[in-house]
Every structure is written in structure tokens, then in C-alpha cells.
Write a structure and sequence with these properties.
The complex is a heterodimer of chains A (306) and B (610).
Chain A: H1 19-35, H2 39-55, H3 59-83, E1 90-95, E2 101-105, H4 106-132, H5 135-142, H6 147-177, H7 186-192, H8 194-217, H9 235-256, H10 273-286, H11 288-298, H12 302-305
Antiparallel strand pairs in A: 1-2
Helix pairs in contact in A: 1-2, 1-4, 1-9, 2-4, 2-10, 2-11, 3-4, 5-6, 6-8, 9-10
Chain B: E1 2-13, E2 21-29, E3 33-37, H1 44-52, H2 54-57, E4 61-69, E5 72-73, H3 79-85, E6 86-89, H4 93-96, H5 102-112, H6 117-130, H7 146-158, E7 164-168, H8 176-193, E8 196-201, E9 213-218, E10 221-226, H9 229-238, H10 246-253, H11 263-272, H12 279-285, H13 298-309, H14 319-326, E11 333-336, E12 339-342, E13 349-359, E14 365-375, E15 379-384, H15 390-398, E16 405-410, E17 413-414, H16 420-423, E18 427-430, H17 443-454, H18 459-468, H19 484-496, E19 502-506, H20 514-529, E20 533-537, H21 541-547, E21 550-555, E22 558-564, H22 565-569, H23 578-583, H24 593-609
Parallel strand pairs in B: 3-8, 3-9, 6-7, 7-8, 15-20, 15-21, 18-19, 19-20
Antiparallel strand pairs in B: 1-2, 1-4, 4-5, 9-10, 11-12, 13-14, 13-16, 16-17, 21-22
Classes of the chains: A mainly alpha (306), B alpha/beta (610).
């Protein structure tokens, strides 16, 4: 079973952070990558996010996420190269059948790369959230604002790995029965998945009945309900919280001063050194949990302090 | 004082035409450990639901009579009182776990009851220690083994501190080691805390000695209520009820006056039989008692008939079997211990694995230089711990997994160059969960799917299989509405339609009662006679002893030993069936109930002669 894409507890600083802090970090990455257009700032966000993932022990999974985003990035770049005509520096000129000419601009290529960087940051922040946040803790925390919704979301999240397991098992079983899933025709391929989907659906329905009975037997619906907040705020949480807040201030300042804005068209903007310094500070602030985690591993006594 | 009182209870599910419970009257005293025996559909689960209050609070239907918990009618209890009075543990742990992590799962019920957080934490810590969950409390529930999941589900129930614990076949989905651990915990709970326990079980060999009282259910009624295991065993034999574990069954069928519940008690009784025939006696007499075909007394014959009755034989071995027999290879059989045991020759190997190694991409080594040969037209059982590599080995034979090193030759072809779909016509694979095969609305459509959509088999073969597997009365039923054994037979029919030469079965007896196991065993034996080779993975020593010809033992990805069932199971520390443990040291290679009965009856004849 490949559990790489889901939460699994590891004993490191990032996994011991309050789920709210990790949510704050992930939201921070996501919002700023949508606001920033400067490739240096986007790169610093990607680097900080990557450092957190690597530090949390997910280099391989991050690589798999990036591999997935590379495909989408290629699509973005090709579309920009083919359809963007706002650039001024011509890279090459293609003459198609019928005499129609397409000009490929350097600026369009850079814009495509910039957008790919943005996509990678967004996907990496999603990866960090999925891999490093325990949905039980997260929803226990969020659940204070809506228990029923939180429970539905928790049970849905819990059932995902069970369904992934079902999918793998049923696909194998149907293959052994002689069902072919590798047809060239998409129509036939979809059709061959009908036994898998049918079995999964029926098993899920049966399982939902037992689960509902179990919920009932466990007193679900009684009021008042308590929430065991397993995670109390610790000094490490405060430290990361303040560093992230400082990062938000730095990012806001950079945006207000237009240091993090970048124009690709009609010609690429110059990159000033004054723009690079806040990006570097932002990188350090957002990557602080990774740095502390390194300290945790280097000096185990640090665990008692932070 | 009766903590549970069931007063003239009759219940019928809303979507059913027959009552699940009929005129149940029962009183259970505080602190009693009650074992509820009975086959599939006998009403065990419904009775537990009625005591727990899920009937009628959760399940709609017709109800008459009343259940009282601590002199209060269950129907009048609110949800909070109910969950604090009786907790119900289901057989499938996966479906009853709600949260992602072990700690959150245990806390869930207490959170619902609004207990203070300090108390929740304290109880979690205590339960972690009591149920040995400290190693797992950071894990996700999805990552746990079936046994660990069941322990977590039990902890989640106990956290709410119910006065009564209701267990619905809690060990049916877990391996024997985990089952032993689980039952030990249950016994300890009962002894240390005095909690009242009602446990429904189909396979009693593991738990007969645990209970203080035994109830036998059939067709929604309580047919027997006993204080002693031997009384139940004798009654069950007299009433042709198959829910008796092997040891008491041997004594009851042999007509012994004392019926032991455990192997230990059985051996004590055997020691008291001073003239019991030992191996030395047999050698002196120049005969093997085991090879004798003893004549059955009426009781024994009744028991045998009961097992045979359930195996529907509407067609003689013509049709499908006759067709298959045409392809049958010539082979030599030698009769040993009353069962057919094949002497293999080199050409008989239908599967050959040479120096096969395999490592899962994210795991350790699953197979280590495995050399394994599967003899043609025998039932071979693959035994070993969880994680020993048994399922991985099966997947190599069906071609789902290709070896990292070494060769797997199946029916003369190298699996490295064959697709699973190609191998499917010669190799049938039945996984642990027959439900994985079932997705169509009727049994008829389900079985004919392989023929219509995959082009396997003929309409004639299909018809013969339906009759042979006793499915003719269920053709228009939804396969998901059938019993476990019937579902398995539907899945088996869909596989056998292509007339595979090799049949691979992964834990085929999991969750089955004695009757269903006997039916399956008989069916498998008949398939073998038609030329099919069977390889099954199982933890069920009793089933293996009765039906397998050969056994291979796996451990940490290696085949440790392979040989005849007698050689492999006889005297085995862990895998020996109960009957073998009973006669261990007194007589070698006694594996089956029939053999045990024969020995004891011979003793009686000798005693009477003396």
C-alpha cells in the first residue's frame, strides 16, 4: 500500500506544530503565490515550502507532486508560447500550413515559467497541508465552530485510504478475472472500470451502514460535546506563529513597495538588488520551522526548550 | 441479579419476511461470560442489537416483547444511558472506526458523552496500557493490522465504561495469533472487572473454555442454554448441531461419557484411559488403527450426514466435472490415513518458482530466494505468520507481481512474459473478500458476466456450475444479500467459468462457520478430482488438516518447509490442529476428527473386550 500521499505521523518539529500553525503557513504560501508576480519572490516561497517538506521527511513525495505539476507547467508554457503576442523579443517564427505565422516570444516563455513557478508553490502548499496536518486534530480544532460538518469531513477523510485500498484490491481481483484495463480505446477503458466502480460503490454503501450504527452506538449526537484538544500551544508554535506574522508583514511591505511585482510584457523588468533582500528575509522567516527542525535533530536537548 | 432480561422477544427486520428473533426469553446475571453459538443467519447479531438497543432505536421493523437492562426497558433508555449500559463491538473493525488516529478514535465516544478532557486523557492512557496500545497510539487507524484495529475498537467502547460488553464475532476477521491476544484481553476484563460479556462466535475452539455459560441459537431461537461446555457438546452432537469444536466433537462422537472443552482436559481424560492404544501398540499389532475404516455408529453417521447434507449435490459428476475429467492427467494416488495422497513426479509440477525474490517499492523484502513447486491435482496449503509473504507468493503465480529476481513458471509459461489477463484463463484467484467480485444486481448476471463480457466459458458450463455450487435458487437474488458462504460460491462460479487448471484461494474460510467450511472443503475436493490444482493460503489448521494434501510453511519471505499435511502439521508447536494436539505423544499423525473418533472407538472396543 502506498501511503505517501497521506498524513503519517513522524517525530519531527513540523509534525509537532499546532495544526492551526501549519494551516497558517500553508494559507500564507497559497495567498502570497497568487499575489506575487516576481519570479524571485515566487522562488523564495517555493524554496521555503520545499525546505519544510524536506525537513518533514517528504523529499520523495514532494518530487512526485512536482513531477505532476511539471506536466501542467508544460501545458501552461506551450499555451503561452503559442498564443501570447504581447512580447517584443522574438525567439523564433513558425510558418504553418496556409501561410499563417506564429511568433514565439522570449517574454512569453518567461511568463510561462513564472506561472509554472506559481503553480508549483500552490501545489507544494497543498502537499504540506495534506502530509503534515493530522485531520483529526485539525477538525477537532475547527470542529468547535461546527461539530457536525467537522465529523462528516473527518469520516470522509478517514474513508479515503480505505477506499484507495478497496480500489487497488478490486482492480487486482478483476484483472485476475480477466478484465483488461489497458485498452487503447478510452471508451472501452472506461467501460472496463465499471466492475471496479460498482464493487467499490456497493462496499461503501454497506460500510456506511455499519459506520452509522457505530456512530449511534458511540453516542454521536449527544450534547454537550467536549473536544479533546490534544495539541496545546507550545513555545515552538509561538515562535513559528510570530515568524510567520513577520513574514506576512515583510511580504505586505514588499507588495506595497511594488518590490514583489514584476512585469513580463512588453519587455522583462529588470531585477533590482533591493527586491532580493526582502525575498531572502521572507525565505528565512517562512523556512524557520525547517531550521528549528534541523536544530532538533542536531541538538536533541532543544526539544525540551522549543 | 439479572443485568439483562429478554422477555418474550420477537423481531422482524423491515425488509424481511421472516423473523430474525422468535420468542426469546433470557436472563443474564451480572458478571457472566456468555458464549452465543450459532451459524450464519441464526439470529446472534440481531439478539446483540436488541440487547444493545440498536433494535429498535436504529433498525426499523416489527418488534414484540421487551429487553430490560438493569430492570429498565431498553426502549425507554435515552441514548446516553444506553451507550453507558451496553457497548456493541462488530466483527468488521474497519467499518466501525470513525477517526483517523488511534487516540482520537478512543476519545470519540467520551467526547460525545461530554466527559471532561482530563478524564478523557486519563482513560486513554489507562486503556493504552491495559490493551497494549502504547506502541500504536500515534498511528493512523488505517495503518493498523486487523487485530490492532479490533483492539482499538474495543478500547473505544471500554472508554465509555459500559456495564455490558456485547461482542459480535470479534475474532472472525483476524488471524489466530491476534485472536488469541484479543480473547485473552476479553477474559482478563471479565475476571478483573466483573464486566458482563456476551460474545457471539461461530468457531468455538478458541473460546469454549472462556465462558461461564453457553447459548446455542438457530433460526432466531435459543435452542440450548448450558452451564458447562461438555453438556453443550453432548447436546449439540445429539441434536445434530455442528457448532462443536474438534476436541469435544471427537469425544462426543466416540460415545465417551466425559466431554472435554479444551485440549488440556482432553489429554487428561486420555491419560485416564489406561489401555489407550499408542504407536507402540500399533507397531506390535502390525496394523495402523488410523488406516482402518471403522464403522460409524448412528450418532457419528448423523454428524457426517449433517455435513454432507449442506453440500448440495444436484448433479452427479457428469457435466462440468465430466468435461474437466477428460483433461485430467494420469497420476498415481497412494492411500494414507484414509485420504488420497498423491506421490508427485517431476512432470506433475504445475507451478515452479526458482530463486524468486521480491521487494515491495516501499517495504521490506517480501520474498527471499523462494524455491517452490506446486504439485498437480492436489490441495496445497500455504501457512505462516502475517507478513510471511504468502499473499505475495500467490500474486506471483497469478502474475499480478513480477519477480525482481528468479523465475515463476505457471502451466509451462514464464509469468514475466505473460499478462495477468492472459493467465486468468488458466489460473483462478479468489481473494479474501468475495464481495470484491460482486457488483451486478443478480447472481445470474454476476456469473454470466465472465462469459458475456470476457468471453470465458460456455452457457452449458455456466449452467452446470450454478447447479453444482447450489446457486440455482438464488439466481434472481442480489448477490450482496446472500450469506458469506453463498457470496463466496457466486465469486467461485464466476472464476471457475473459464475452467482454470489452478485455483488460488486466499483465506477462504475466514468468517465461516463449521457448516460452510465443510461445504467448501467438499467442493474443493471434488474440483481436485476433476484435475484442478488448488493452492490455498490459510491460518485455519482444522480446515487444512481435513482437506489439504500438502502444506508449505512460509516465514519472513522464505519457504521454510514443505511436505504432506501429516508430516507438516503433526506435532507442530503452533499449526497442529486440535485433534493432533489431543493425541500428541500418544499417536502420531492423527489430524482429523474422523481419525480421532476411530482411535477412541477402537479403545472402547478393546476396553470392552478386556
Amino acid at each position: 500500500m502506498n501511503w505517501d500521499y497521506t498524513y503519517q505521523y513522524r517525530d519531527n518539529f513540523i509534525y509537532n506544530l499546532h495544526p492551526g500553525i501549519v494551516l497558517l503557513l500553508c494559507t500564507n504560501f497559497l495567498i502570497w503565490c497568487l499575489i506575487f508576480s516576481h519570479p524571485v519572490y515566487l522562488a523564495s516561497l517555493l524554496a521555503a515550502n520545499g525546505m519544510l517538506l524536506i525537513s518533514a521527511g517528504h523529499l520523495r513525495t514532494w518530487y512526485l507532486y512536482l513531477k505532476f505539476s511539471l506536466f501542467m507547467s508544460a501545458v501552461i508554457i506551450v499555451i503561452n508560447l503559442l498564443f501570447s503576442s504581447a512580447g517584443t523579443t522574438t525567439l523564433l517564427e513558425l510558418t504553418l500550413l496556409g501561410g499563417y505565422t506564429i511568433k514565439v516570444y522570449w517574454e512569453a516563455l518567461m511568463y510561462g515559467l513564472g506561472m509554472s513557478l506559481r503553480l508549483m508553490v500552490a501545489i507544494s502548499s497543498f502537499a504540506l497541508f495534506t502530509l503534515a496536518v493530522d485531520s483529526d486534530q485539525m477538525l477537532a480544532w475547527v470542529g468547535r465552530f461546527g461539530t457536525r460538518t467537522a465529523l462528516v469531513a473527518t469520516s470522509t477523510l478517514r474513508i479515503i485510504p480505505v477506499m484507495i485500498e478497496d480500489y487497488h484490491r478490486i482492480t487486482e481481483v478483476q484483472k485476475c478475472r480477466g478484465v483488461r484495463f489497458n485498452h487503447r480505446s478510452i471508451r472501452r477503458r472506461i467501460k472496463s472500470y465499471w466492475p471496479v466502480m460498482g464493487s467499490m460503490l456497493l462496499s461503501s454503501l454497506e460500510r456506511s451502514m455499519t459506520m452509522a450504527e457505530s456512530l449511534y452506538n458511540r453516542g454521536y449526537g449527544l450534547k454537550p460535546r467536549t473536544n479533546m484538544q490534544l495539541h496545546r500551544w507550545q513555545s515552538g508554535d509561538y515562535l513559528v506563529f510570530f515568524s510567520t506574522l513577520t513574514g506576512i508583514l515583510v511580504a505586505s511591505l514588499a507588495q506595497w513597495q511594488h518590490w514583489s511585482s514584476y512585469s513580463y510584457y512588453p519587455v522583462l523588468d529588470r531585477v533590482d538588488s533591493v527586491e532580493i533582500l526582502p525575498a531572502s528575509i521572507l525565505l528565512l522567516l517562512l523556512a524557520l520551522p525547517a531550521i528549528i527542525n534541523w536544530g532538533w535533530e542536531k541538538w536533541p536537548s532543544l526539544r525540551s526548550i522549543i | 441479579m439479572a443485568v439483562i432480561k429478554v422477555d418474550n422477544l420477537t423481531y422482524q427486520y423491515a425488509n424481511s419476511s421472516i423473523p430474525a428473533l422468535q420468542d426469546i426469553n433470557l436472563e443474564v446475571q451480572a458478571g457472566e461470560f456468555v458464549l452465543l453459538a450459532g451459524g450464519s443467519g441464526s439470529g446472534k447479531t440481531s439478539l446483540l442489537r436488541a440487547i444493545n438497543g440498536a433494535i429498535p432505536h436504529f433498525y426499523a421493523g416489527f418488534i414484540k416483547g421487551q429487553v430490560y437492562l438493569d430492570n429498565q426497558a431498553v426502549s425507554s433508555l435515552d441514548q446516553r444511558q444506553r451507550v453507558q449500559t451496553a457497548g456493541l463491538l462488530h466483527q468488521d473493525a474497519d467499518s466501525q472506526l470513525i477517526m483517523n488516529s488511534v487516540t482520537a478514535e478512543i476519545a470519540f465516544g467520551m467526547e460525545n458523552m461530554g466527559l471532561p478532557v482530563k478524564l478523557i486523557r486519563r482513560r486513554i492512557a489507562e486503556l493504552n496500557s491495559a490493551l497494549n496500545l502504547n506502541q500504536d497510539n500515534h498511528k493512523r487507524t488505517a495503518d493498523l493490522s486487523a487485530g490492532q484495529k479490533q483492539r482499538v475498537a474495543l478500547a473505544a467502547l471500554l472508554a465509555m465504561q459500559p456495564q455490558i460488553l456485547l461482542l459480535d464475532e470479534p475474532t472472525s476477521q483476524i488471524d489466530p495469533v491476534a485472536a488469541e491476544e484479543f480473547l485473552t484481553i476479553i477474559r482478563r476484563l471479565n475476571e478483573d472487572t466483573g464486566i458482563t460479556i456476551i460474545m457471539a462466535e461461530q468457531r468455538l475452539e478458541r473460546c469454549l473454555h472462556l465462558a461461564d455459560r453457553y447459548l446455542v441459537m438457530e433460526n432466531g431461537q435459543i435452542k440450548g442454554d448450558f452451564k458447562k461446555a461438555d453438556d453443550m457438546a453432548r447436546w449439540a452432537v445429539e441434536n445434530r448441531c455442528p457448532f462443536v469444536p474438534p476436541v469435544p466433537r471427537v469425544f462426543a462422537l466416540a460415545g465417551q461419557p466425559s466431554i472435554p472443552a479444551t485440549v488440556k482436559e482432553g489429554r487428561q481424560l486420555l491419560r485416564e484411559l489406561k489401555t489407550f492404544p499408542t504407536n507402540d501398540d500399533d507397531h506390535r499389532n502390525g496394523s495402523t488403527q488410523l488406516q482402518k475404516h471403522h464403522k460409524c455408529n448412528p450418532e457419528e453417521q448423523a454428524m457426517k450426514d449433517l455435513f454432507r447434507e449442506s453440500v448440495i449435490l444436484p448433479l452427479p459428476p457428469t457435466g462440468f466435472f465430466a468435461i474437466a475429467q477428460k483433461d485430467r492427467l494420469e497420476s498415481t494416488f497412494v492411500v494414507t490415513n484414509g485420504s488420497s495422497m498423491k506421490q508427485p513426479t517431476c512432470s506433475d509440477y504445475i507451478v515452479e518458482m526458482n530463486q524468486v525474490s521480491y521487494t515491495y517499492p516501499h517495504g521490506g523484502k517480501a520474498l527471499r530466494q523462494v524455491d517452490f513447486k506446486l504439485h498437480s491435482q492436489v490441495i496445497t496449503a500455504l501457512i505462516g505468520d502475517n507478513g510471511a509473504g504468502k499473499t505475495t507468493l500467490l500474486k506471483h503465480i497469478i502474475g499480478l507481481i513480477k519477480p525482481d529476481r528468479g523465475r515463476v513458471k505457471v502451466l509451462g509459461g514464464d509469468t514475466l512474459h505473460l499478462d495477468v489477463e492472459d493467465l486468468a484463463s488458466g489460473v483462478g484467484y479468489l481473494s479474501q473478500q468475495p464481495d470484491d467480485y460482486l457488483f451486478l444486481p443478480t447472481v445470474r448476471e454476476e456469473i454470466s458476466f465472465s462469459r458475456r463480457k470476457l468471453g470465458r466459458g460456455t452457457a452449458e458450463t455456466e449452467k452446470q456450475l450454478i447447479y453444482r455450487l447450489g446457486l440455482q435458487d438464488y439466481l434472481d437474488c442480489n448477490p450482496r444479500d446472500l450469506s458469506t458462504g453463498q457470496r463466496q460460491r457466486v465469486a467461485l462460479a464466476s472464476i471457475l467459468l473459464s475452467k482454470p487448471k489452478i485455483l488460488l484461494l486466499d483465506e477462504p474460510t475466514r468468517g465461516m462457520d463449521y457448516n460452510l467450511k465443510a461445504e467448501l472443503g467438499e467442493i474443493l475436493k471434488e474440483f481436485v478430482q476433476t484435475g484442478v490444482t488448488i493452492l490455498l493460503v490459510s491460518h485455519d489448521s482444522e480446515f487444512i488438516a481435513e482437506y489439504a494434501d500438502e502444506v508449505a510453511l512460509m516465514s519472513t519471505g522464505e519457504i521454510i518447509a514443505q511436505g504432506s499435511t501429516g508430516e507438516m502439521l503433526s506435532g507442530s508447536i503452533y499449526y497442529a490442529p486440535q485433534v493432533n494436539r489431543l493425541f500428541n505423544g500418544l499417536h502420531e499423525q492423527v489430524l482429523t476428527v474422523e481419525q480421532g473418533v476411530g482411535l477412541l472407538k477402537d479403545y472402547r472396543v478393546r476396553s470392552e473386550g478386556d
